Amino acid sequence: MGVQILMPALSPTMTEGKLSRWLKKEGDEVKSGDVIAEIETDKATMEVEAVDEGKLTKILVPEGTEGVSVNSPIAELDGGGEAVSQGAAPGQDTAAPQQPAPPAAASHTVGEVAKQAEDNAAVAERGARRGEGAAQGGRASGEAAAAPEKDWGPTKPITVREALRDAMALEMRRDKDVFLMGEEVAQYQGAYKISQGLLDEFGPRRVIDTPITEHGFTGMAVGAAMTGLRPIVEFMTFNFSMQAIDQIINSAAKTLYMSGGQLGCPIVFRGPNGAAARVAAQHSQCYASWYAHVPGLKVVAPWSSADAKGLLRAAIRDPNPVIVLENEILYGHSFECPTSEDFIVPIGKAKVERPGKDVTIVAYSIAVTWAMQAAEALAKDGIEAEVINLRSIRPLDAETIAASVKKTNRLVTVEEGWPYANIGTEVAMQVIEAAFDWLDAPPVRVCGKDVPMPYAANLEKLALPTQPEIIEAVKRVTYK
Amino acid sequence: MTRDQLLQAYHDMLLIRRFEEKAGQLYGMGLIGGFCHLYIGQEAVVVGMQACLEPGDEVITSYRDHGHMLATGMEARGVMAELTGRSGGYSHGKGGSMHMFSREKGFYGGHGIVGAQVSLGTGLAFSNWYRESRNVSLTYFGEGASNQGQVYESFNLAALMKLPVVYIIENNKYGMGTSVERASASHDLSKNGAAWGIPGEQVNGMDVTAVKEAGERAVAHCREGKGPYLLEMKTYRYRGHSMSDPAKYRTREEVQKMREQSDPIETARKMLLEQDVSEAELKKIDDEVKSVVQEAADFAQKSPEPEESELWTDVLVESPAVEAR
C-alpha cells in the first residue's frame, strides 16, 4: 500500500507554491529526513524532507510546475510494508482543519472516550485544587462579599502610608504565602517608608530587598506566583515598571488564558504612580491607561486611607494580577479609616464621595482631592457637583457612573494622565454608550497636558490639571 | 547510565523525534498553523536532564518546547491536539505550539518571548527556596536568548539568593538565522555566569549519557543549597528555526554531517546494541513509539475545535468573594 506525499505548507500564509526541483527520482529509496524536493513559496525556496521511509514509486507533479496547491499529492511512496507507518497516509483519515470534527462519542473508541472523561476529571480536579488553595488562605470566605459601603464601625484618622503598611501586615499574618519584594523594602524600611516594621515582624524570607533589577525580579516574582505563592512587588515608582512591562503583560496577564485556565498568577504590583513634585519627565507619568488596556489585569488607584487599606487587601487576596497605583503626595495625608480587622474594599466598585445633582465629576487617585476642592468652590456658586472616586480603573464601575449621569445629565472627568486614550476617554465613551440620551452637554476631560513633565515649578503646575480648569469645565457643561 | 536507563532514554528521544516529524507533516498539511519550532536533533538534552529529576522539580523553557513537554511525561495526544488548535489540547486550543503547561508534571511552559522564561524559571527556584523544599528548577534557553539582559539579572538574583536553579543553555549554534559567533562575544557560554560565581560546564548535548552525567552534578549542587549551576549543551537542530525558515544560513553538508556523525538517537542505538540489546527489542520500541505518535495525530485531528464560548473564559480567575458588590 502506497503513501501519498502531499504538497506541504511551509509558512503560515502559503496556499500554493512552485515545485521547482526533484532531488529524488522514481525508484529511489528515501529515508526519513532526506531532502526530496525544492519548493518555492511566496517568501523563499524551501527544501522538502521525507517523513516516511520507502521507495519513491511515482512522481505525480513534474518539476517546474507552478501554482501547486497545498495538500495536493505530488508523489507516491511505497511504505516498506510496515503496518504502523501506513497509518500516516495523509488525506485518508484527515478532517480538514477548518471543519469541526464529529462529536467525540460518534467516532472515538471506547478507550478514547474513557480517556476524555479522565481528562475532564483532571480539569475538574485542577479547578478544585485552585478552590482549595483559595480556601487554605481563607480567601474564598464571604467576608469580602459584604456590601462595599457598609458601615464598618468606628474609624480613626491614619495616613495613606500607614494604611498601606497595615494592609500588607494584616494579609501577611493571615496567609504565609504572601511576601513583599522590591528595592529598599526591608532594611531601609521602604524608599517611601511604606514597609516600615515589616522586616522586623516577618523576617528576611518574607520581606526581601532586591537589587535594582526590575526586569529580573518582576519575572522572578511572576514565576513564583505561577506556583501559587502570592508576591507583592513594590516598584519604587511605577516609572520603573516599564523595565519589566513585558513580564507584567506577556507573562502575568496572559498565562491563565494561554494555559486554558490551568496556571493563574496571583500577584500584586504596587508603588507610587504619576507626578510627585519637581522630579521631571522620566519620574512623572501616569500608567493607569497603559495597564487598564490589558485583559487579564486588574487596576486600582486608591485615594483615601480607607481606599488604600481596603483595596490593597482585596488586591492581595485576588487570584489575578492586580496593579495598585498609589500616589506619593497622598502618602502623608490623613483620612478616617475603619479600625475593623475585617475591613476590605471590593475591586470594581466606585464610591460617591460627595453627592450632588448638577454635574458628575469622575476622578481617581489624587485627582479626587482636586475634584473635591473644586466641588466645594462650585457649591459657593450654587452648583452641586457629585464627585465619584473610581477606586477601580479596571474593572470600571460603569453602573455607578451611568446612574449618576442619569441624575445630573453632565459629565466632567479629572485625572493627571495624558489626554490621548486616557481613563476619562473610556469613562466618557461608556457614558455615551449607556446614557447618551441623558446627556445635556458633551462630556469634558480635564487632564494632564500632552507634553512630557517639565521641571520648572511654574511649568509643572501648568502641566497638571488645576482647580480653575475643573471649575471652567463644570461651567462649560452646565452652560453657566 | 544503566542498560534500562539507556533503553528508556532511547525510547523517550525516539518519541520526541517521531512526534516532531509528525508535527512537521501535519504542519505541511495545514493542520497546524502559525509558528511551529521543531526540536529534532536536540532530543538528548531534555531527555538526559529529565532523568536527573525528582517529583516536584520544575521545568520551564522557550517556544521550542514540544520535546520538553513529552520528556516531563505530558501526553503526546494532548500536545498534538494543542498544535492543531483543538479542545483536546493541553490549553484547550488557546495556547498553541508555544504555550502549554502542566502543573501536575511540573512543566511551566512554553514561553514565546526570548529570555522571559529565564526570570520566570528563577522564580520557580525562588518558590522552592521560599518553601524550603529540596526541589530544583530546570530553566532552559537557547544561546540566542543568552544575550538578553534579564538573563544576567536572573543570574545575579539566583547567585545572590542561592536559588536552586540549573540554567541550561541549549546551544544549537543558530539564533534563528544568526550564528552564535555573530551574536555573542563570549565563546564559551558555560562561563557566562562566572562573574557571579556560577559554576558552568560545556556538555556534549548530542550524547544523552554525557548530558545525564553533567545534569546529576548540576542538580546535586542545587539540592545541596549551593545556588545556581550553568550547563551549556552543545547541540544542533536539524530543521529550520521554525517551519517557514529555509535555513539558508548554513550548508546542507553541515546539517548532513551532524546527522550522520552525531545523531543522539543513533548514538544511543549503537551503545544499546553493544550492550547486547537485540535489534528486535529496539524494533519493538520503534513500533510502540510510532503507534503512540499515530494515535496522537489521529486524536489531534478528531478532537473538535474549542467551543466559541471558550473565547471568553480564563481571562481572569473568577473570584466572587472579592468581586461582589
UniProtKB/TrEMBL annotation, chain A:
Q: What is this protein called?
A: Pyruvate dehydrogenase E1 component subunit beta
Per its database record, what is this protein's job? The pyruvate dehydrogenase complex catalyzes the overall conversion of pyruvate to acetyl-CoA and CO2.
The record's section on Pfam families has: Biotin_lipoyl, Transket_pyr, Transketolase_C
- UniProt record, GO biological process: pyruvate decarboxylation to acetyl-CoA
The organism that produces this protein has a lineage beginning with: Bacteria, Pseudomonadati, Pseudomonadota, Alphaproteobacteria, Acetobacterales
Subunit field text: Heterodimer of an alpha and a beta chain.
Q: Which organism is it from?
A: Roseicella frigidaeris
Compositionally biased tracts (Low complexity): 86-98
State the reactions this protein catalyses.
Answer: N(6)-[(R)-lipoyl]-L-lysyl-[protein] + pyruvate + H(+) = N(6)-[(R)-S(8)-acetyldihydrolipoyl]-L-lysyl-[protein] + CO2
Describe the location of the Lipoyl-binding domain by residue ranges.
Answer: 2-78
- The EC number on file is 1.2.4.1
Q: What is the required cofactor set for this protein?
A: (R)-lipoate; thiamine diphosphate
GO molecular function per UniProt? metal ion binding; pyruvate dehydrogenase (acetyl-transferring) activity
InterPro entries according to UniProt: 2-oxoA_DH_lipoyl-BS, Biotin_lipoyl, PDHB_mito-type, Single_hybrid_motif, THDP-binding, Transketo_C/PFOR_II, Transketolase-like_Pyr-bd, Transketolase_C
Region (Disordered) residue spans: 70-157
Listed A to Z, the keywords are: Lipoyl, Metal-binding, Oxidoreductase, Potassium, Pyruvate, Thiamine pyrophosphate, Transit peptide
